[in-house]
Amino acid sequence: MIVGVVPLSEEYSRPSLPIVNTTDEEPSILQRVAQGDARAVEECLDRYSALVWSLARKQLPDHGLAEDLVQDVFIDVWKSAARFDPKISSEANFIGVIARRRLIDGRRKVGRRPEQQAIEGEEVSASDQGLEAVDRGDEARVAAQALEQLKPEHRKILVMSVMHGLSHSQIAKTTGMPLGTVKSHLRRGLEKVRALLDGPPPSVREVSS
Amino acid sequence: MRARSNDDRLQELLAFKALEGLDLCERDELDGLLVSAGELDAEAFGRAAAAVHLSLLQDELEEVPSGLRARLSQDAAQFLRDGEAFDRTGESRSSASPVSTPNTPQVLVSRPGLPLTAYLGWLAAAALLISWALGGRAEFTSVEVDADRAALIARSDSLLVPWAVTDDEGGQGARGDVVWSDVEQAGYMRFDGLRANDPSREQYQLWIFDAERPDAHPVDGGVFDVEGEGEVIVRIDPKLGVSRAALFAVTLEVPGGVVVSSRERLLLTAEVP
Asked: Is the Cβ pair B101, A186 closer than 8 Å?
């Protein structure tokens, strides 16, 4: 089984930073949600519900649990909309963070899925096509670039962790790597992505404001 | 050398939190490290993990089931209408019934106890109880609380002190901590193992001892309930200003709390060093 990454096209190899997906003059969907704009709420669901649903379904085989999770995610989104800052993240990423929090909580609550089920026979790649068609946020493009730059073994276990929700110990068992190595690779891989997203080196970063 | 080691561990915990979550001990450790780390972007790894996750989604997203899509719209409409929390049936939760899991703590807001004007006594207490019952209680999502609490811990003016149990049996086995900022006049209590109370019989009440007030007159930090098991986070909402918090104490009182505690059921204390 190979967990690989499709090489990215040049089109996505030089993402612009910092990541801002809206302008000062035009409030984003989430900013309008925070202002109580009913149309913005529906626009948000139209644009991102399939994204959240797909994230949930990838990790939660139980259809009912996945539906519950998506409802919880969007309730969190409505409540948290006022905290959205387009200077810090895209809307897709903001919602993705909320969804992942709920996924992690859900996994810990119901137990992790069988170790092999998530990755057996499935090739996972960073997608370089259709990124315009599906709004995943500019960060996803940067992350795809970062994944491409990782060593194959680092990339592989990062995909296992992030995409399939495998625990560190499950990854160690699956790959035969020592647990400490898995943790080290995961951290370095995520630091690489963070470094590309944030710019400064992956150490404690003082908040500029 | 020591500081660098702490920073390294801090970064590791933040990364692992973003990837698979932390257990209770790791959360404690992270909180401790955040205290001494100064202001930092504690959500950066979370954003990075989300970016990776979104980049790995295949192009063909799964279509949202029509029933779910309809419920999402109903939830949203109710949010706009009420501005309150929802359960999965789309019905407003007028009284809190927070979900408690190992990683999704109950999130509550302490409510002011009885008014300090003692002569109003139970009459005022009854009025307050009615008001609370009608108005419900504000709820915050675990995501918001997690971020707010982490930000508070990271502030240079905040303090983080662990709970210590007393001899009272009611607090035995409980642990957790208090994060508080005199500057922000805000804080959170975190409990694990504090037993659920029956609000019709008794309620927990927080007292904040201010170094600039007599010990006999601590600030009422509000009453709160614990429902079910698991970690509970209670947002502190004191009625009076606290100049310099010196000690936090949790007592068990009659429903609605008291103006002056007899301190007969003093369960937990957190003393500021």
From this structure: no
From the list B270, B188, B176, the residue with the least C-alpha distance to B231 is B176
Cα–Cα distance measured from residue A40 to residue A31, given in angstroms and rounded to the nearest whole number: 9
pLDDT at A181 over 90: yes
Distances (CA, A) of A138 to A3, A88, A146, A164, B160: 23, 12, 13, 22, 37
Tell me the C-alpha to C-alpha distance, in Å, between residue B54 and each of A59, A165, A194, B170.
Answer: 13, 13, 14, 47
And the tokens for B130? Answer: 């009615």
- The C-alpha angle A31, A33, A37, rounded to 5 degrees, equals 115
**Max CA separation in chain A (angstroms):** 53
Instruction: Tell how strand B106-109 and strand B231-236 pair up.
Output: parallel
Is it true that the peptide bond before A18 is cis, omega within 30 degrees of 0?
yes
Distances (CA, A) of B172 to B168, B261, B272: 7, 20, 21
The answer to whether B265 and B167 are in contact (CB under 8 A) is: no
The answer to whether the beta carbons of residues A58 and A163 sit under 8 Å apart is yes
pTM for the full predicted model:
0.59
Chain-centroid distance of CA B215 in Å reads: 25
Q: What is the DSSP letter of B111?
A: B
- Inter-chain residue contact A139 with B80, CB threshold 8 Å: no
In angstroms, the Cα distances linking B265 to A160, A198, B109, B219 are 50, 50, 21, 17
Cα–Cα distance, A142 to A144 (Å, whole number): 5
Burial class (CB in 10 A: 0-12, 13-18, 19+), A43: middle
Q: How far is A35 from chain B (nearest CA, A)?
A: 10
Q: How many Å separate Cα B17 from the centre of its chain? A: 19
* Residue A43 predicted with pLDDT over 60: yes
Pairs of residues, one from chain A and one from chain B, whose beta carbons lie less than 8 Å apart: 231
CB-CB contact of B263 with B213 (8 Å): no
Between B87 and B143, name the one with better pLDDT: B143
Q: Best of A187, A191, A196, A206 to disrupt the B interface by mutation (most B CBs within 10 Å)?
A: A187
CA distance B201 to A195: 54
Sign of CA dihedral A18, A24, A25, A29: positive
Q: Is A53 on the interface with B (CB under 8 A)?
A: yes
Residue pair B149/B33 in contact (Cβ under 8 Å)? The answer is: no
Strand partners, B250: B206, B268
The pLDDT confidence band at residue B203, using thresholds 50, 70 and 90, is very high
pLDDT digits (tens, 9 = 90+) for A92-102: 999 999 999 98
Proportion of chain B in helix, strand, coil states, percent, rounded to 5: 35, 25, 40
